[in-house]
Design a protein that fits this description.
Helices cover 29% and strands 25% of the residues. It is α+β, with helices and mostly antiparallel strands. The two termini are 31 Å apart. Bound molecules: flavin mononucleotide (FMN) and manganese (II) ion.
Length: 496
């Protein structure tokens, strides 16, 4: 397999079809023809990822129902170590374990020097520009992803772009978007997220809110639209910082908002200040249809930009495991780790927002304890800092000998170093939403537990010794009996 040059690495981050073509060459993407947009592509993806949650290929669907060849849907874009490495420009050969890859990604994100986007006059996204009567969002094979969804969702693996009317700050966030008809869509944003804070500044003054919805994203754009970039800072600037060059954008003809020049499909329009329409139900990240159908502001689409043979990027949230959990754990864990350090919490050794908790509800941090109360400080902060602040339930703190991404380690530590009566704190009236299956009515609170599964600080030196082979003896064994291990385990190296 050809090795990518630096220019090719950049192209793969910024152009979905180059990424897809390379992923195909290395066996990380499969083409599938003749499945229908009405539930078939969604269930097929779900069934593949449920059977094999790790290391399944990305799935590119073509010939979808009555749609012409080339009008494709892509699921599972980033759900493997190699694909996530390609999207973020991280060498995975030298970052093999989860914690190594997380450290490399975190370093890249926290050391980010944002670069402002560059406005250009042309780009692949202008290959087709539709306005007036030609506007038809159903020109693309928007799927019904799950059996009980309230309609066709055009925006799932998307990036919704809005501008703060006071400061000019441009925000990108992945928020779900349902097609209402050819020219209207509706979006759900959880209260507190940046997109809704900006949107409501317009709507509360009775003004429509200009919006772009990128429904065919490129890999790097989808990573930043999901990362908790601090408020006031633009995700496009962050993406520029990650790739080391400005992201090229074209001024949207109706809104002046930045249309990413290498995207696949972008919808342009405005969010109505006066008209509402039902949105949902939709299979959600918590694994339920909890938010039902509610009214949200209608979005009028005035213009569509798309490439020839466009790729609609898709992600169906649902009961884990699913096709966007692999990278979610990295994106969110890196962000939480960064926030903990910025909050001056010392000696963080690892963070993992677990896949089985949908990357939200069960989060673990590892620390090297330095003083009385350190572990409580860390776990209380971790349960309230973005990106964990919203909708989590359990946050666990463990010592540095525990791998926070390994449930054997974590549950063993909870079972042996945590005295429930003393070591579990409960917070009440914390940030949740209608998506939480335990939220009934309009009081959008939850409660959460902070679980201290660290050795008591006063017994850190006299805590019973762990019953396992020591690193030194393991090393001796590998040196003496390496061939035998390889014969039995079928692998070259043994992690010790
Ligand atoms: C596939 C997928 C779908 C999502 N859907 C929504 C959604 O419908 N509404 C929402 O508020 N957040 C949704 N999120 C989470 C946001 O994208 C995430 O919180 C992001 O950081 C928000 O950006 P912001 O910090 O600029 O608000 C979704 C995330 C993913 C990966
Ligand atoms: Mn943001």
């Amino acid at each position: 397999m050809q090795k990518l040059s630096n220019d090719q690495k950049t192209e793969v981050m910024l152009a979905l079809r180059s990424f897809a073509s390379y992923a195909g060459q290395i066996g990380e993407l499969k083409y599938i023809n003749n499945l229908h947009w009405d539930k078939e592509v969604g269930s097929f993806t779900e069934m593949v990822y449920r059977a094999k949650p790790v290391n399944s290929p990305a799935l590119m669907f073509d010939h979808i129902g009555q749609y012409p060849e080339g009008y494709r849907c892509l699921y599972g874009m980033l759900a493997s170590q190699r694909r996530f490495g390609l999207a973020t420009g991280i060498d995975i050969a030298s970052n093999k374990t989860r914690m190594e890859l997380l450290r490399a990604f975190r370093k890249k994100m926290s050391g980010n020097q944002p670069i402002a986007p560059r406005y250009v006059d042309s780009g692949p996204i202008l290959e087709n520009v539709l306005s007036g009567d030609d506007v038809d969002v159903l020109k693309f094979p928007a799927p019904i992803h799950h059996e009980l969804d309230g309609g066709r969702y055009i925006g799932t693996a998307d990036a919704v772009i809005t501008r703060d009317p006071d400061t000019g700050w441009i925000n990108l966030g992945t928020y779900r978007v349902q097609a209402v008809n050819k020219k209207q869509v509706v979006c759900y944003i959880t209260p507190g997220k940046h997109g809704i804070l900006q949107r409501n500044k317009y709507l509360s003054q009775g003004k429509p809110c200009p919006v772009l919805i990128v429904v065919g994203v490129f890999p790097l754009l989808w990573v930043v639209a999901r990362y908790k970039v601090p408020g006031g800072m633009g995700e496009l600037d962050y993406a520029g910082g990650m790739v080391g060059q400005p992201i090229e954008v074209i001024e949207g003809a109706d809104t002046g908002l930045p249309v990413p020049a290498t995207a696949e499909i972008v919808l342009e329009g405005e969010i109505s200040a006066t008209e509402m329409t039902p949105e949902g139900p939709f299979g959600e990240w918590a694994g339920y249809y909890a938010s039902s159908a509610r009214k949200e502001p209608l979005i009028n689409i005035r213009r569509i930009y798309h490439r020839h043979n466009p790729i609609l990027t898709c992600a169906a949230s649902q009961k884990p495991p699913h096709a966007h959990l692999f990278e979610r754990a990295f994106i969110r864990s890196a962000s939480l780790w960064d926030k903990l350090e910025r909050a001056d919490c010392p000696e963080i050794q690892g963070v993992w927002m677990h896949e089985a908790g949908s990357g939200r509800t069960f989060n673990v941090i590892a620390i090297k304890q330095k003083y009385y109360g350190h572990s409580r400080q860390a776990v209380i902060l971790a349960s309230q800092l973005s990106p964990a602040a919203y909708a989590n339930r359990f946050t666990v703190v463990v010592d540095e000998d525990i791998d926070p991404s390994n449930l054997y380690d974590v549950i063993w530590a909870m079972g042996t170093r945590c005295d429930p009566q003393q070591d579990i704190e409960i917070n009440k009236k914390t940030w949740s939403s209608v998506i939480d299956p335990l939220v009934f009515g309009d009081q959008l609170y939850n409660s959460r537990a902070q679980i201290d599964a660290c050795k008591p600080f006063e017994h850190i030196h006299d805590f019973p010794t762990v019953a396992q082979t020591s690193p030194e003896y393991k090393k001796f064994m590998v040196e003496k009996h390496g061939a035998l291990f390889k014969e039995i385990l079928g692998q070259d190296t043994l992690e010790i």
